[in-house]
């Protein structure tokens, strides 16, 4: 046996006396010589991992792929010697789960294909490719070298994958279930076949007590190098946008004679510190408009991100460009609106809460009220009737306003049921009472009952109707339904021409719009204004596929409960807007600049918070504030983390300065943080929904509770769900036996990880995100074809699908941003160009969220 010099013994003693570390670098994987027979293929991927691949073809007994390297053992190496290396693959055989009643298919092979590690002529390690892989099992092997081998000056290491038994030969443990989604790819009479990718890397000979450091891909190492050279790389730079900010006042309907109150939010660019009292509003001529400006979102770091702007829009201001002006020239702000906070006499609210009044002119008061009907034992079991207005005087006339006509109720109609008026006016002497109701869309035929006598008149919203028959609203416990009411009283005047204008502005309120400013402000992330070519393609896609966001495109108005939602595959399983359809509407709004998408967002948020959010639960109070998952009538499934996404709710709150929306979004985020939702999740979608909510709430508030909760989720992902060396979040999709990236789901998680990093500088979040981007290019992109990503599934039963590139490509840009690795940028651009060529833009209803980042 070779004896080490005395100084090496002293060094060894020193090492044993302290924490030992690896002191010899891994053997470069390209030093291994490749040999393969039959259908096997091999290459080294971008992560410095050696890949041994058998394609989706029948295998041959004895077919193999191997990589061999002869290594010299330094004379100073001290026994025991160990071989350390990383290995994993993308196949496993949990064969008892291949059930014939499942939509997931399964091809379970066990005892056919094996992974082997040889040192000289000794089989050091062997395992079926159907074994467990990281993160369920350790990916790094630590194998003791036999004493005889350790005494050698040179050893030969061989990494091998071999087919001991052809797939043509059926073993007792083999199973097959062809699901309905796989018929086109595989039929029962087809020859048996399965593919595998086996990954090897970080090969190293360890001496004594040396430890192998965790391996990482070059892209992840580049991220860490850049982060160490740049303090605060996670923090966003201040926006280059400076005041003044110009917005277009978008009105869906002409403004009434007395004007109409505008309340909406405008963003202040990141890094700009302006207090609301420093802001004022001016028209296109530079004349100041009396306005009230106050904080809407106050970040803990004293950064005002959004402000509420309230002012009276006068006729003639429709589509006018208004400017948030130089504060130094502002006159004293007039308190334009006096908020009474009281209910006008005669207006009734069923479990309601008045929202106050706005003074629009000396003679006009607009009373707004939100009427929320909740369904739990403390409230009502069903929506039977909703009393709206009662006047204890005889009415001289009652008029009903429809889109194309006005009808007058005749004197002989004392108890009348009327269908779907947009507004009503009850005249009593020289006083005219105007009434309009919002959020009644979706009722098959909205009906009101008018009860009148010689001494009073009463107006009531009647129950839900279906097929012309009255039926109780089919509510379940924990659900709510919100209506909004506008009431105006006109004394000694009858502005009949203004009635439809009041109703129109109430149902689709005026809004200040500048999506370019909104994108460049960085308040919603990386939603920059689209470049010319990208913007044209995306705008054309929206115009061609979603020409009418408020019409039939999104099934608006199916039923009162399902208004604004979609039903899945003809079943009675409602999809709660499918993940975060609200964020899809935000993307469409940023791209198109069309206020119809802002209106669609408002409708979708209102529906989601009413029907999907759990308002009460006797058995699970920890579910309150969270959304139901899929199921019949929305409410038959417990909360599902994948759709617990507050980002779109926050966006709706921002645009419309809606404090209720904002409160509910924060409640969701706080419930997520306090209850630890997402911890222990088994699917990337579950982690993604939770991380999006936490990252967004952190962006909004800076509250440490969201930072800490997000950190726990990130630690859970890193420890329990990601194969850190491959960077892959492996799970099955479409077939029980293939475990790998599902890119359209992985993109859902990459976005909030990037956002969380931008808020915190958390390197683990960035490393996970870059690792996932790395693994998409290594495992889901066709070799030598940048951007040709199999976006739906890694599993060979499914053909390539580029329909998710609009969500995946932005995440590749994020990886480029963090690493400077131009292959990410190249793949992102190529993926976008492929989408344009193949016309495979994803639906706004599905994974359209990230698109503005393109």
Overall description:
There is one protein chain. By secondary structure, this protein is α+β, with helices and mostly antiparallel strands. The protein is 25% helix and 25% strand. It contains 16 helices and 37 strands. The strands form 10 sheets. The protein has a 7-stranded antiparallel β-sheet with strand order 20-21-32-27-26-23-24, with helices on one face. A 5-stranded antiparallel β-sheet has the order 1-4-10-7-8, with no helix packed on it. α9 runs antiparallel to α10 (659-675), α11 packs antiparallel against α12 and α13 (743-760) packs antiparallel against α14. The longest helix is centred in the last third of the chain and has 18 residues, at 595-612. The chain is elongated, with a radius of gyration of 32 Å. The chain starts with 5 loop residues before the first helix and ends in a 16-residue tail after the last helix. Mean pLDDT is 84; it is low at 1-23, 337-341 and 349-364.
Distance between the termini: 63 Å
The low-pLDDT segments are 1-23, 337-341, 349-364
Largest beta sheet, briefly? 7 strands, antiparallel
Overall, the morphology is elongated
Number of strands: 37
Topology:
Elements: H1 6-16, E1 33-36, E2 41-44, E3 50-54, E4 64-72, E5 81-89, E6 106-108, E7 113-119, E8 122-128, E9 140-144, H2 147-150, E10 154-163, E11 175-177, E12 196-207, H3 218-229, E13 245-250, E14 260-267, E15 280-282, E16 288-289, E17 291-298, E18 304-313, E19 321-325, E20 352-361, E21 364-375, E22 386-391, E23 397-401, E24 406-409, E25 415-419, E26 423-428, E27 431-438, E28 447-452, E29 457-461, E30 465-466, E31 469-470, E32 479-491, H4 499-507, E33 511-513, H5 515-520, H6 532-545, E34 573-574, H7 581-592, H8 595-612, E35 631-632, H9 647-656, H10 659-675, H11 684-701, H12 704-720, E36 731-732, E37 739-740, H13 743-760, H14 763-780, H15 805-819, H16 822-838
């Amino acid at each position: 046996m070779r004896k080490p010099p005395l100084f090496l013994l002293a060094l060894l003693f020193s090492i044993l006396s302290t924490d030992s570390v690896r002191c010899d670098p891994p053997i470069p994987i390209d030093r291994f010589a490749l040999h393969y027979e039959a259908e096997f293929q091999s290459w080294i991927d971008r992560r410095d991992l050696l890949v041994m691949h058998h394609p989706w073809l029948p295998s041959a007994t004895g077919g193999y792929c191997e990589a061999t390297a002869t290594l010299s053992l330094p004379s100073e190496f001290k026994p025991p010697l160990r071989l350390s290396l990383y290995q994993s693959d993308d196949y496993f055989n949990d064969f008892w789960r291949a059930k014939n009643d499942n939509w997931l298919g399964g091809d379970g092979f066990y005892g056919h294909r094996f992974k082997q590690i040889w040192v000289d002529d000794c089989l050091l390690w062997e395992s079926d490719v159907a074994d467990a892989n990281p993160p369920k099992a350790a990916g790094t092997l630590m194998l003791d070298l036999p004493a005889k081998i350790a005494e050698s000056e040179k050893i030969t290491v061989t990494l091998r994958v071999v087919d001991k038994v052809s797939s043509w030969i059926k073993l007792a443990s083999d199973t097959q279930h062809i699901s309905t989604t796989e018929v086109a790819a595989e039929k029962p009479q087809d020859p048996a076949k399965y593919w595998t990718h086996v990954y090897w890397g970080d090969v190293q000979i360890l001496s004594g007590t040396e430890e192998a450091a965790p391996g990482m891909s070059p892209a992840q190492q580049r991220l860490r190098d850049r982060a160490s050279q740049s303090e605060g790389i996670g923090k966003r730079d201040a926006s280059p946008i400076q005041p003044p900010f110009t917005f277009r006042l978008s009105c869906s309907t002409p403004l009434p004679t007395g004007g109409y109150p505008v309340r909406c939010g405008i963003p202040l660019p990141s890094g700009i510190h302006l207090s609301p009292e420093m802001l004022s509003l001016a028209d296109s001529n530079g004349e100041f408009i009396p306005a009230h400006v106050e904080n809407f979102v106050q970040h803990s770091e004293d950064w005002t991100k959004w402000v509420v702007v309230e002012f009276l829009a006068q006729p003639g201001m429709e589509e006018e460009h208004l400017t948030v002006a130089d504060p130094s020239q502002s006159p004293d702000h007039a308190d334009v609106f006096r908020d009474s906070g009281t209910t006008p006499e005669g207006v009734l609210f069923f479990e309601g809460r008045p929202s106050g009044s706005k003074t629009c002119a000396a003679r006009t008061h607009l009373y707004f009220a939100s009427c929320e009907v909740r369904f739990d034992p403390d409230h009502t079991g069903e929506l039977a009737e909703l009393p709206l207005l009662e006047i204890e005087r005889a009415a001289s006339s009652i008029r009903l306003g429809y889109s194309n006509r006005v009808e007058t109720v005749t004197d002989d109609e004392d108890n009348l049921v009327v269908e779907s008026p947009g507004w009503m006016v009850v005249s009593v002497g020289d006083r005219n009472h105007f009434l309009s109701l919002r959020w009644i869309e979706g009722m098959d035929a909205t009906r009101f009952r008018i009860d009148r006598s010689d001494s009073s008149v009463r107006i009531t919203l009647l129950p839900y109707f279906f097929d012309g028959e009255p039926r109780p609203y089919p509510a379940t416990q924990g659900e709510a339904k919100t209506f909004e009411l506008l009431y105006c009283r006109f004394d000694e005047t009858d502005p009949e021409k203004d009635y439809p204008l009041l109703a129109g502005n109430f149902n689709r309120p005026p809004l200040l719009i500048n999506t370019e400013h909104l994108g460049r402000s960085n308040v919603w992330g990386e939603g920059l204004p689209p470049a010319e070519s990208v913007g044209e393609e995306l705008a054309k896609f929206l115009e061609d596929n979603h020409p009418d966001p408020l019409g039939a495109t999104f099934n608006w108005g199916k039923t009162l409960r399902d208004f604004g939602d979609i039903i899945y595959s003809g079943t009675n399983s409602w999809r709660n807007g499918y993940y975060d359809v609200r964020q899809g509407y935000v993307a469409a709004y940023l791209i198109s600049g069309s206020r119809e998408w802002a209106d669609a967002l408002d409708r979708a948020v209102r529906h989601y918070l009413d029907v999907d959010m759990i308002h009460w639960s006797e058995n699970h109070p920890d579910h309150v504030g969270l959304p139901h998952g899929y199921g019949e009538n929305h409410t038959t499934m417990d909360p599902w983390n994948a759709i617990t996404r507050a980002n779109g709710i926050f966006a709706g709150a921002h645009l419309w300065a809606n404090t209720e929306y904002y409160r509910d979004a924060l409640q969701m985020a706080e419930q997520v943080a306090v209850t630890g939702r997402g911890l222990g999740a088994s699917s990337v979608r579950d982690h993604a929904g939770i991380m999006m909510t936490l990252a967004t709430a952190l962006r909004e508030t800076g509250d440490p509770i969201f930072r800490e909760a997000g950190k726990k989720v990130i630690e859970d992902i890193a420890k329990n769900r990601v194969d850190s060396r491959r960077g892959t979040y492996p799970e099955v999709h479409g077939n029980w036996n293939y475990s790998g990236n599902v890119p359209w789901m992985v993109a859902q998680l990459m976005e909030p990880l990037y956002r969380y990093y931008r808020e915190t500088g958390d390197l683990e979040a960035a490393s996970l995100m870059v690792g996932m981007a790395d693994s998409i290019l290594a495992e889901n992109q066709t070799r030598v074809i940048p951007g040709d990503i199999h976006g739906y599934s890694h599993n060979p039963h499914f053909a390539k699908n580029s329909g998710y590139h609009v969500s995946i490509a932005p995440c590749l840009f994020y990886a480029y941003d963090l690493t400077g690795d131009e292959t990410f940028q190249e793949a992102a651009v190529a993926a976008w160009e492929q989408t344009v060529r193949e016309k495979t833009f994803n639906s706004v209803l599905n994974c359209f969220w990230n698109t503005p980042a393109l």
